[in-house]
Design brief:
With 405 residues, the chain is an alpha/beta fold. It has 12 helices and 15 strands. Bound molecules: pyridoxal-5'-phosphate.
């Protein structure tokens, strides 16, 4: 059958010619994706309960996003490197960000990925303060470029690539006593508003406020990574707004692009304009602010702002909490639609993942917290879809329990 031959070939090609990141790629051969569902080339449908790992927060191919991409593609694509020409999609995206960010964060720099946004933030902290020390958190993940890896914590993922950036100090996340180590040598403190890769660790409001006060008192920039926990994931557009703090820099990516690649930082103009002199062109990128991607991102933000009922997101969150209340799980950590459920080992997590996948449900694991099972459905997931998911996962958890005895 020709279709069979095509599928075998494409799988072999994938394995042999496309760089692999692990020995066990999931390997779904994608045909199409729409709303909360992905269809493979055999016609099997999967409910995407991980949002392409924190990206498709408004579902796949949101109609307004697709419309904006089509409209922009009809006008122009790349015309000039970042920052030189005036292009409407960047203006539209900046305006959408202004709707959901505090007024003082009035300046935006668009790049191509989350890791690049992290890089821009780290450089900005050094440029603003003239200092070199960067403070990061144990358990942190900020991306895979050298700078981002330097402020990420997992040593197993770092040691092969040393030397990394010097002068990085790691503190215990959510520990008020550790804040004493932030001093007048510190250029900036970078942390996830809610830690993702560490297995969904939600800090206390008291800690976040003490951290913000400490940064202010020593003149260090407080930089919050909202790449995974932003864009509605925690039940508000930005996770930092749960804690009543005023960060100096917001680092964004993932869902912001509406399904296309993007990164961004937001900061006050008085800081950001330092990139334009001493040295001139102090931070540059060819494709950052690409018009097609900014059009998509602006449409995504507008859709989230106008279509999402945050109370309903909380109700959905509650339904997930209910089905995760199971003897096989020792702890659930959650905020909004960002979930980690602890099993006993990676073997159990992988077994449950495979069990779900077989039944048409996509879940995931964490890079560094290997005993935790991960869920992060789109904000658009329906209550019926949650109910269906709950049945599958509970059946899997029952089997895990019986496998343990
Ligand atoms: C919290 C956080 N920061 C940074 C990144 C890096 O983003 P990207 O993969 O777009 O470089 C990620 C990606 O998973 C992330 O979760």
């Amino acid at each position: 059958m020709p279709i069979f031959v095509f599928r075998m070939d494409s799988k072999n090609y994938f394995i042999n010619h496309l760089a692999q990141t692990s020995p066990f790629p999931i390997g779904i051969e994608v045909q199409s994706a729409e709303g909360n569902w992905i269809t493979d080339t055999s016609g099997k449908r999967y409910l995407d309960f991980i949002s392409g790992v924190g990206v498709t927060n408004m579902g796949h191919r949101h109609p307004k996003v697709v419309e904006a991409i089509h409209a922009q593609a009809e006008k122009y694509l790349h015309v000039m490197v970042y920052g030189e020409f005036i292009q409407q999609p960047l203006h539209d995206l900046a305006e959408e960000l202004q709707h959901i960010l505090p007024k003082y964060l009035d300046n935006y720099y668009f790049v191509n990925s989350g890791a690049e946004a992290t890089e821009a933030a780290l450089k900005l902290a050094k440029r603003v303060t003239g200092r070199s020390e960067l403070v990061a958190m144990k358990g942190a993940y900020h991306g895979n470029t050298h700078g981002a890896l330097s402020v990420s914590a997992n040593e197993k993922k770092k040691y092969r690539f040393r030397p990394l950036l010097p002068d990085v100090r790691f503190l215990k996340y959510n520990s008020i006593p550790d804040l004493d180590q932030i001093t007048e040598r510190t250029a900036g403190v970078i942390l996830e508003s809610v830690q993702g890769d560490a297995g969904v660790i939600v800090p206390s409001t008291e800690y976040m406020q003490a951290l913000a006060a400490k940064c202010k008192s020593v003149g260090a920039l407080l930089m919050v990574d909202e790449i995974q926990c932003g864009m509605g994931r925690t039940g508000k557009p930005f996770a930092f707004s749960h804690f009543g703090i005023e960060p100096d820099v917001i680092i964004m990516g993932k869902a912001l692009g509406g399904g296309l690649p993007i990164g961004a930082i937001a900061a006050p103009k008085k800081h950001m304009e330092l990139f334009s002199h001493d040295p001139i062109l102090g931070h540059i990128t060819t494709f950052g602010g690409n018009p097609l991607i900014c059009a998509s991102a602006a449409a995504f933000l507008k859709a989230m702002r106008t279509e999402i009922d945050w109370n309903e997101v909380e109700e959905k969150s509650e339904l997930i909490t209910q089905f995760l209340n199971h003897e096989a799980i020792s702890e659930v950590r959650k905020i909004g639609l960002m979930y980690a459920a602890d099993l006993q080992s990676f073997d159990e997590v992988k077994w449950l993942f495979d069990f779900c996948l077989e039944r048409g449900l996509i879940t995931f694991w964490f890079l560094s917290t290997d005993y935790a099972f991960r869920l992060a459905p789109p904000l658009t997931v329906t209550k019926e879809e949650i109910e269906w998911t709950g049945k599958i996962i509970r059946e899997g958890l029952d089997q895990i329990l019986s496998r343990r005895t």
